[in-house]
Design brief:
With 92 residues, the protein is mainly β. Helices cover 0% and strands 49% of the residues.
Length: 92
């Protein structure tokens, strides 16, 4: 059993991001009656073009779409342990 760390945090520009499985995802769209449904795209969506994506509902990952077509640029999973982040451990 592998455990993956999911970190919801804020980018340097003040925008929400997710770090998941050593990749970073940027918030793409917020929908739903109270904004609880959010779609996230790999940070290399535009220049990659990497089509990896995540769907969250009320802060829970419900779908991981496509695989990345590039190596991870996050140095290690230790980077995820940030005191300013909310962290969630899930099974994969």
């Amino acid at each position: 059993m592998n455990l993956l760390i999911v970190v919801f945090k804020t980018s340097r520009n003040g925008k929400p991001v997710i770090e998941y499985d050593n990749y970073r995802f940027n918030l793409h769209k917020v929908t739903g009656p109270s904004g609880e449904r959010r779609s996230w795209r790999c940070w290399r969506w535009r220049d990659g073009p990497c089509r990896a994506s995540i769907l969250t509902i009320a802060g829970v990952i419900v779908k991981v779409g496509k695989t990345h077509n590039h190596p991870s640029l996050l140095a290690s999973k230790h980077k995820f342990f940030d005191k300013t982040s909310s962290q969630l451990t899930i099974n994969s």
